[in-house]
Amino acid sequence: MFKINQYLNKILEIILIILMVFLTLCIIWQVISRYILNEPSTITEELSRFLMIYTCLLGSSYALGKKKHLSIDLIFSYISLENRKKLNTLLNVIMDCYHIWWNKINHQYV
């Protein structure tokens, strides 16, 4: 299981690098075409928006999987290791319940 997780993380990392490079090139081309050529490209605005969305979604799942996601550990630093594990489990259950609830809400409008 660890090998599969490592392999998937590596693939996700490569995809994220490609998306970031493509996003950067797309925005550079948009600036050049708009301000230097005086003829704005019509597709770069939409393309850069979608690239940013997918980069954020994939990047946040990559960071969460590596346990490098943004967190505030002020409370965690003052409690014992056993209570840390319990609190972490509780927070994960709350987060999962919220995601399930949010998913049900969103499917009503789709």
Automatic annotation (TrEMBL):
<dbReference type="InterPro" id="IPR055348">
    <property type="entry name" value="DctQ"/>
</dbReference>
<keyword id="KW-0813">Transport</keyword>
<feature type="transmembrane region" description="Helical">
    <location>
        <begin position="12"/>
        <end position="32"/>
    </location>
</feature>
<protein>
    <recommendedName>
        <fullName>TRAP transporter small permease protein</fullName>
    </recommendedName>
</protein>
<comment type="function">
    <text>Part of the tripartite ATP-independent periplasmic (TRAP) transport system.</text>
</comment>
<keyword id="KW-1003">Cell membrane</keyword>
<keyword id="KW-0812">Transmembrane</keyword>
<comment type="subunit">
    <text>The complex comprises the extracytoplasmic solute receptor protein and the two transmembrane proteins.</text>
</comment>
<dbReference type="GO" id="GO:0015740">
    <property type="term" value="P:C4-dicarboxylate transport"/>
</dbReference>
<keyword id="KW-0472">Membrane</keyword>
<keyword id="KW-1133">Transmembrane helix</keyword>
<feature type="domain" description="Tripartite ATP-independent periplasmic transporters DctQ component">
    <location>
        <begin position="23"/>
        <end position="94"/>
    </location>
</feature>
<dbReference type="InterPro" id="IPR007387">
    <property type="entry name" value="TRAP_DctQ"/>
</dbReference>
<dbReference type="Pfam" id="PF04290">
    <property type="entry name" value="DctQ"/>
</dbReference>
<dbReference type="GO" id="GO:0005886">
    <property type="term" value="C:plasma membrane"/>
</dbReference>
<feature type="transmembrane region" description="Helical">
    <location>
        <begin position="47"/>
        <end position="65"/>
    </location>
</feature>
<dbReference type="GO" id="GO:0022857">
    <property type="term" value="F:transmembrane transporter activity"/>
</dbReference>
<comment type="similarity">
    <text>Belongs to the TRAP transporter small permease family.</text>
</comment>
<keyword id="KW-0997">Cell inner membrane</keyword>
